[in-house]
Write the structure tokens for this entry.
Amino acid sequence: MSMLARFAPASPTTTQEYDEVMRRLEAQGIWPPDGLEYHCAFLVDGNVRVSEIWDSREQFEAFGQQLMPVLADAGIDPGQPEIVDVHNVVKR
């Protein structure tokens, strides 16, 4: 079953920090990861937040093991994501 993960980092995160993490993930060849259906980064009060839809919780957790060291190296604490099961997705 698909799941949605919503991240509101524990500390303020800039678009420059977000872009640097994305650059590092791409350079390591681990972006986009298997199982990621959608990734949406957006700003709330000038801080980056992320929502993602994944094919499964297992794929989300597997990628998390690769992502966390990159975030730590960049000084970003993603906090605890809100995880919910997806009932329906409508694509245009």
Q: What stands out?
A: Residues 3-85 form a domain with the Alpha-Beta Plaits fold (CATH 3.30.70.100).
